[in-house]
Amino acid sequence: PPPATPDLPKRLAEAYRFRKTRRNGLSARRALITGVTGQDGSYLARLLLEKGYEVHGIKRRSSSFNTGRIEDIYEDPHDPNPSMHLHFGDVTDATNIIRVMQEVQPHEVYNLAAQSHVQVSFETPEYTANADALGALRLLEAIRILKLEGHTRYFQASTSEMFGMVQEIPQTETTPFYPRSPYAVAKLYAHWITVNYREAYNMHASCGIMFNHESPVRGETFVTRKITRAAAAIKLGRQDKLYLGNLDAKRDWGHAKEYARGMWMMLQQDMPGDYVLATGVTISVREFTQWVFEHAGFELEWRGTGEDEKAYCKATGRCLVEIDPRYFRPTEVDFLLGDASKAKEKLGWEASTPVRELAREMYQSDLAEAEAGAA
Ligand code: NDP
Ligand code: GDR
């Protein structure tokens, strides 16, 4: 008779063994990326193309051009053998997701699509829940409906925002969650539904609990990029000052390119699992601002407190940074610091770009972009 408690890990390892067989005449190792036009999607698509994958991305229809970040890797669809394909779609549209999934029959799905701005989620909570929470469910269900569980591995972009009001320092895979925004609550649903589908249906489904990661192609309204762009514009005399919200918030900021590699590594494991990706260093928005302005040649002096705090250029006395309370959030996440020991031990993944170097790279890129714009 079978043992009362079956040997689950062995059974799962068997179920997840990568199927190398051809399916419906499709042969290459195929990956489907939702959110391919975003920061992480663009790094991940590049990485997978380098590794020889056939990459399929889902992009939204937009009234203006939204493929700027992947322009250089997107091939002409008339090419007889393109390795990068774009499909119109939206994670709020289940029929579309099922159709694309059926067409592509991917070996790996990376769900990066999201309304990813925390502050915007307070203004669009229902849409954020639809895209960020139910979007994950739609993808997992599509895999199940099409009976691709034994063939398709799934990655969910979970977030350190789920820790919210932190219950433990540093935060690990076992730290309790306490989300503080509609975005974080939606992502918590997506996280747990991924865990549930893994346990209920033996899916190879993994979550990367990723702390903030940035790059020169970071969205312009996230604080790091907002700061590096403003410093470059101020340097060139095109902007007077920068308005920010909470300067005391502390974040664990890493480089997006390294986090994309971590996502891929999770799906190469025999067993699925959840992993924190973080640098293990935390700094405040104020410190990040200070460093970026230093790169730009402005030494800052902070005066005042709370909403009246301002930063002045030490050399000229000119005010360069002011607080605008409109950027304060109804509920804030004050402090995040991740411990990525599990990822280091099991995946061999480690963040390697110091945040100061990241700030410099982003500033230099924005300066070059601003100078080119002026030419
Ligand atoms: P971005 O905001 O840069 O990219 C989000 C992507 O999702 C874009 O391609 C966007 O398309 C797409 N998208 C948004 N809504 C939909 C929708 N309804 N249907 C289909 N696509 C949609 O985010 P990042 O690249 O920074 O982050 C990638 C993922 O990782 C996100 O899920 C984010 O929540 C998560 N994450 C990010 C972290 C970070 O620090 N960057 C940390 C932890 C988690 P479009 O270009 O048309 O807007
Ligand atoms: P976050 O990133 O909310 O951590 O979410 P963001 O850069 O928006 O904010 C970081 C911190 O900076 C404070 N802040 C400001 N933020 C913005 N955007 N604009 C400002 O002017 C400003 N001034 C101060 C914020 O209050 C906050 O404390 C990011 C996103 O990529 C999520 O999708 C992802 O899940 C998390 O990181 C991990």
TrEMBL record:
The keyword Lyase applies. It comes from Qipengyuania polymorpha. NADP(+) binds at Y154. It catalyses: GDP-alpha-D-mannose = GDP-4-dehydro-alpha-D-rhamnose + H2O. Residues 32-362 form the NAD(P)-binding domain. This is GDP-mannose 4,6-dehydratase. One of its GO terms (molecular function) is GDP-mannose 4,6-dehydratase activity. It comes from the Bacteria. Transmembrane segments: none annotated. Keywords: Lyase, NADP. Its EC number is 4.2.1.47. Catalyzes the conversion of GDP-D-mannose to GDP-4-dehydro-6-deoxy-D-mannose. The keyword NADP applies. Belongs to the NAD(P)-dependent epimerase/dehydratase family. GDP-mannose 4,6-dehydratase subfamily. Its cofactor is NADP(+).
